[in-house]
Amino acid sequence: MALLEDTTNPRVLEEINASLNLLDDKGSVAVAVAASVGIARLEAVRFRALAQLNRHRGGARSVAQEVAFELSLVDGHAGAMVAAADALTTRLPRTLDLLDQGKVSGFGAMKVAAATVWLSDENALAADAVLGDRLAGKNCEQIRKAASHVAATVDREGADKRAEHSREGRRLAVRQGETGVASIEVEDGPVEKVNAAYTRIDRAARALKTGDETRTLDQLRADVALDLLLSGRGGVSERTEVFLYMDLFTYLGLNGDPAEMAGHGHLPATLARHIATGPDTVLRRIITDPLSGQVVDLGRDRYRPTAGLDEYVRVRDRECRRPGCHRPAQACDLDHTVPWQFGGRTDAADLVSFCRRDHRLKDEPGWTYHLTPDGTLTITTPTGQRHDSTPPPLHTPRPKTPQDEPPPF
Q1: Cβ pair 335, 357 in contact under 8 A
Q2: What's the pTM value of the predicted model, to 2 decimals?
Q3: What is the pLDDT of residues 353-383, one digit of tens each?
């Protein structure tokens, strides 16, 4: 208990806060990182304490309410914390160990617990063993996607049932806000329809963003969505695109490998085949390097002709290339890593996909970007921290064999 008291001792914190005024940018980032590590370790202590409380109470439902009172949390979040605490101390030991080391946040650990809640104890332990080497340094969305993918891999049949059950739970919710505003949300809607609906709304909003339009894109999207709900304008025959990545054997039902939807993450094979075989679905042929799994060419047989280079870069990148951002590349800007006016080339070796926010971030002082021929993007922050982003392969890279070696001369 003495250690916990030291970390919350007002005098100690006052001394730390006073010293922050002497830090430069790099020192400020270092202190923030160190504080996050310490917070994660304390969150591990909190999860163990909640798990102990839950065991003492025999898993009673009232535990969540007590935790909500004592920690000033809403009931839903308190219940999720108690459930995560129980899972981390029984089914997810490696994730808890990462929390102890400060390599995963408490919120990230809760994402793992939520993504694996439907697995048996045996399969949860198997998923946790795999995830132990994949979570450090990842943000919560990356952790959610990784955990969902691994869970679907260790229990593919269960993943199909889970997806079917989740889609059956779709609902429309209204949340009242303050000062005359409210929110409407389709919860747990079919992922392909939700993404297609957003694309349609986004396109309509961008078409309205003319020179004399004062509304922001966010405001326009909200207005377009409400107009469509109230008046139905826009027509039912409009077609929109979502990008679903799956290999041929998965499509043919010869294996159960998960597929991936840009901007969302992995989908169970059965659900991916359901989406891919829809009446309005257009299939594309994408040629990949068999050793690396990276895109090398696109088939041109498709419903609507497009600009080849633009489409190639977006298909290659899948999502915004800033590590941790998951906006689909089809809704991003294409940008030169070397500015065009300073010698940059308009080709795949210099173009990458950035969402509008990260496109603007690129122009902030101190940020540098370097793109290698294999598509790896290295972003260096103003404090000198380097972060790499590589386009994900469309299939698992194949190991080299003697037949892959060039013939001797």
Answers
A1: no
A2: 0.68
A3: 888 888 887 777 788 888 887 778 888 887 8
- For helices 93-100 and 75-88, the axis angle rounded to 10 degrees is 100
E-strand ranges in 243-359 read 244-245, 259-261, 265-267, 286-288, 295-298, 333-336, 351-354
Q: What angle do CA 359, 354, 224 make, to 5 degrees?
A: 90
Contact 263, 195 (CB under 8 A): yes
Mode of pairing for the β-strands spanning 259-261 and 244-245: antiparallel
Please give the DSSP secondary-structure letter assigned to residue 286: E
Q: CA 162, CA 157: separation in Å to the nearest integer?
A: 9
d(CA 355, CA 322): 9
Query: Are the beta carbons of 337 and 369 closer than 8 angstroms?
Result: yes
| Tokens describing residue 368 | 């540098």
DSSP state of 21: G
Whether the CB-CB separation of 108 and 138 falls below 8 Å is answered with: yes
The conformation of residue 295, written as its DSSP 8-state character, comes to E
Mean per-residue pLDDT of the chain: 81
DSSP 22: G
Helices (H), ranges, 136-268: 140-154, 156-168, 191-208, 217-231, 248-251
Dihedral sign of CA atoms 204, 210, 213, 214 in order: positive
The two structure tokens encoding residue 157: 């049949």
